[in-house]
Amino acid sequence: MVSSAKKIVIWTIWTILIPAGIVAAYFYFPPLLPERPTDMLWFLGLMIGAALMPFVVNRTTIAFVQWISMTVFLLYGLFIEILFMHIFLVFLLLRTKTRKGDLYRYPLNSIMIYIVSLLSGLSFYALGGDHQTFTLEKPFDLLLVIGYTLIYFVGNQASLMLFSRLFYNVKRRLMGKDIVWELASLVVIVPLGMALFILYKEIGVISTVLLGIPFFSVAFILRLYYSTDIVNDHLQLATEIGHELTQSLKAREVVDLFMKRITTIVPVSHAYILDVIDNKELQLIRRYEDGENKSLDIEPLLRYEGISGMVWGTKKAVLYSSKAEWESVAKGYMPESVESILCVPIMRNQKVVGVLLLATTEKRAYVKYQLMIVDILCSYLAIALENARNYELTKKESERCALTGLYNYRYFERLIEQEYQMLLERKYDNLSLILIDIDHFKSINDTYGHQSGNEVLRAIADRLQQFIGDTGIVARYGGEEFVILLPNISKKEALSIAETLRIMIANRPFILEQQLIQNRKRSFIRITASIGVANAPEDADDYLTLIRHADFAMYVGAKRRGRNKVSEYQSIQANG
Q1: Is the domain of 117 the same as that of 184?
Q2: Which one in 58, 122, 462, 562 has a CA-CA gap of 20 to 30 Å to 270?
Q3: In this predicted structure, what is the pLDDT of residue 173?
Q4: How many domains would you assign to the chain?
Q5: pTM recorded for the entire structure
Q6: pLDDT at 516
């Protein structure tokens, strides 16, 4: 996007330079009018025809007009060539459907055309070129054409690179695909321009027809070929993206990768992924606007509600080229600047599981083949998301306690082994372990029932997790026991944490429903815990010993000495 300030700069430069420059060209390089001035209109017609058959390579619009403009320059001089190129530019911008907000492209391209035409024309004159004596019958004339063409090509590419950097903040590759296309086209364009010049001298304006028909036929075939080539490239890219998506094992990573890659295939300023929740509503799970992920504070949509709801209900993708087409359909949130919209259902097993909506501020930004490509990508997304979610669920079930949501003992054993290895590699100075056992837990089950006992375990797990946060790892050790692993935490710090936890458990009553009492009355009960603390390398030489010593401290130092206490392994040994 070009900022408003830069647009003002472009128009200012154009206003100062171009009108005065064209007038100067008229006086310094007056037009060489033919005996039949209407002959010039045939060449202008050729140029307009070339403007109506452009194609885009690397977001650069290419129209093969140089063979005609070169002939116009050789026949009628620099002023007429500059004038005709500006008329050509008007038709080119009309053909590419330049919208109101992009009108700055006319002065920008006008400046480029003037500079390039002036440089190449001056080079022709500097090399000794003269329109009156130029016939293309002498070897020197051929050198003049080659020099003129090279200056034109180099000047054009240099201008594109400079202006792209200054106004679009885009650094163009020195040998991008668009430059290769233009360079290769010179092999055809230069001889074609020379042939047009010679034929016109021999047979007149009929030469524009004789060369124009084969040129436009080839240009049409090239456009078809390039369109097919683009589709094939995008299909190959879509396949590569699909493979990348299926390699990701986390749902969030899948969505991140999809959003990153979709912007390389189609123009996107706004993108939204919505998930079908319980087959009742569409809920936003990703919101991308102007290169950033935004908050998801947008109301859910019902089936057939708004554009996304309609796509969900009909199971059919839609493509809108402007706001006028979708304004009556849209409901809920949609940025004011949006024009083109592409909305596709995310299908799995013939069922809509989500909706992707892509949008841009440009009119007519999307074409039908892009709809097909995005539809294919959405199929890959659906499969990758399902695989990732299944993996995450399986992983969670294998690592987490179903009751409390904490890590289970099996996962904790693997984790403490890894963390102890970090200690051995001196990446940690300390590794502390806190083991917690709920006092008289059996009496809670006997008095209030096992369901209430489970409520207590869940509540304790929540308190431990909230308090520890990212400081350590909380796991359910088994039954009514919990364990906390504290990487790089000293024994003194661990004892302080343990004492805070003991007070937090003992002083804050737990709320539960009495399952065994009629009407399920709420009850408040107080619970205490016995806690053992051990540290490596101070108390243990391996991770299994660290666990045993924390367990020993908890049972011998806390349980046997009255419960509701914190005990460290070293003090027990010292008191032997």
Answers
A1: yes
A2: 58
A3: 66
A4: 3
A5: 0.60
A6: 46
What lies within 8 Å, CB to CB, of 256 at 6+ separation is: none
The answer to whether residue 460 sits within a structural domain is yes
pLDDT (0 to 100) of residue 75: 94
Q: Side chain identity at 517, as an amino acid letter?
A: I
Measured CA to CA, the distance from residue 357 to residue 309 in angstroms comes to 11
Report the pLDDT value the prediction gives residue 73, as an integer from 0 to 100: 95
Please tell me whether residues 73 and 210 are part of one structural domain. Answer: yes
Asked whether residue 238 is domain-assigned, the answer is: no
> Cβ distance 112 to 159 under 8 Å?
yes
Could you tell me which residues are beta bridge partners of residue 344? 356
Model confidence pLDDT, tens digit, residues 505-554: 999 998 876 554 445 566 788 999 999 999 999 898 899 999 999 999 99
Q: Are residues 419 and 388 in the same domain?
A: no
CATH of the domain at 274: 3.30.450.40
Q: Which domain, by its residues, includes 58?
A: 4-229
Long-range contacts of range 224-230, CB-CB < 8 Å, 24 or more positions apart?
A: 226/55, 226/57, 227/55, 227/369, 230/369
440 C-beta neighbours (distance < 10 Å), count: 12
- Same domain? For 127 and 159 the reply is yes
Domain edge (last residue) among 370, 396, 422: 396
3-state SS class at 263? coil
Instruction: Please tell me the predicted confidence (pLDDT) of residue 574.
Output: 47
In degrees and rounded to multiples of 5, residue 104 shows phi and psi of -60, -20
Distance CA 113, CA 82 (A): 7
Helices (H) and strands (E) counted in the chain, each on its own, are: 18, 15
- Long-range contacts of the stretch 147-151 (C-beta < 8 A, 24+): 147/123, 148/70, 148/73, 148/120, 148/121, 148/123, 148/124, 149/66, 149/70, 149/120, 149/186, 149/189, 149/190, 151/119, 151/120, 151/123
Q: Under a CB-based contact definition with an 8 Å cutoff, are residues 49 and 212 in contact? A: yes
Query: CB neighbours (10 Å) of residue 208?
Result: 23
Give the residues across from 532 on adjacent strands: 435, 567
Q: Are residues 165 and 287 in the same domain?
A: no
Give strand ranges (E) for 469-521.
Answer: 473-478, 481-487, 510-513
Beta-sheet strands, E only, within 42-87 = 55-57, 60-62
DSSP 509: P
Residues 463 and 558 in one domain: yes
Residue 245 forms part of a structural domain: no
Q: Say if residue 304 is in the same domain as residue 175.
A: no
Low-confidence ranges of the chain (pLDDT < 70): 1, 55-60, 172-178, 181, 226, 513-522, 571-576
| In-domain check, residue 401 | no
CATH number at 567 reads 3.30.70.270
Which tokens is 210 given? 């004789």
Please give the Cα distance from 398 to 404 (Å, whole number).
Answer: 14
Inter-residue contact 434 to 484 (CB < 8 Å)? yes
Q: Tell which of 330, 362, 396 closes a domain.
A: 396
Region of residue 39 (phi > 0: left; psi between -120 and 50: alpha; otherwise: beta): alpha
